[in-house]
């Protein structure tokens, strides 16, 4: 499923984020930028040690922010590490919106044409998937509608069929 915003495409796919051939994939990161489990663990396993080494050199960041590293051995040239909120920590919607927008800004700063997101914060951070879909898709549409950007393709890569269906329902409801 896809939506066109000012000639740019937002698309939804089911699959393995680490297998996408895009300019950047987004890691659902923690504030220490430690590549542990979930999406980050898959990135660490397939991307090799250089990604964690670059994260260690950056040293961490705050919730709602995003930083960029190389993609190591991944098909993607870059990894954008977006720090989403833990559900229940307070002001989660705004923090997730900021993590999404800051990821899009990092991609634009590097003149990238394509970026792929997972459902940030919905794993061990416990964020409700339907809220995540609404916030992340709204942020992506607003960014593409209002900002000057090099991005042409914004992909949301969902691991499960259930997650894909939640994002599809949300995108359809946006008109």
From TrEMBL:
Signal sequence bounds: none
The protein's name: Appr-1-p processing domain protein
PANTHER family: GANGLIOSIDE INDUCED DIFFERENTIATION ASSOCIATED PROTEIN 2-RELATED, MACRO DOMAIN-CONTAINING PROTEIN
Domain of life: Bacteria
Entries under SUPFAM superfamilies matching the protein: Macro domain-like
Domain Macro: 1-175
């Amino acid at each position: 499923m896809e939506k066109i915003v000012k000639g740019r495409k937002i698309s939804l796919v089911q699959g393995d984020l680490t297998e996408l051939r895009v300019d950047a994939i987004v890691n659902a990161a923690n504030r220490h930028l430690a590549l542990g489990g979930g999406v980050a663990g898959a990135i660490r396993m397939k991307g090799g040690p250089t990604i964690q080494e670059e994260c260690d050199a950056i040293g961490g960041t705050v919730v709602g922010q995003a930083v960029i590293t190389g993609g190591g051995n991944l098909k993607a040239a870059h990894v954008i590490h977006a720090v989403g909120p833990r559900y229940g920590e307070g002001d989660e919607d705004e923090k997730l919106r900021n993590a999404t927008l800051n990821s899009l800004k990092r991609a634009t700063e590097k003149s990238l044409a394509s970026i792929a997101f997972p459902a940030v914060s919905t794993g061990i951070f416990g964020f409700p998937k339907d809220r995540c879909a609404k916030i992340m898709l709204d942020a992506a549409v607003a960014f593409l509608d209002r900002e000057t950007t090099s991005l042409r393709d914004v992909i949301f890569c969902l691991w499960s069929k259930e997650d894909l269906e939640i994002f599809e329902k949300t995108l359809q409801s946006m008109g």
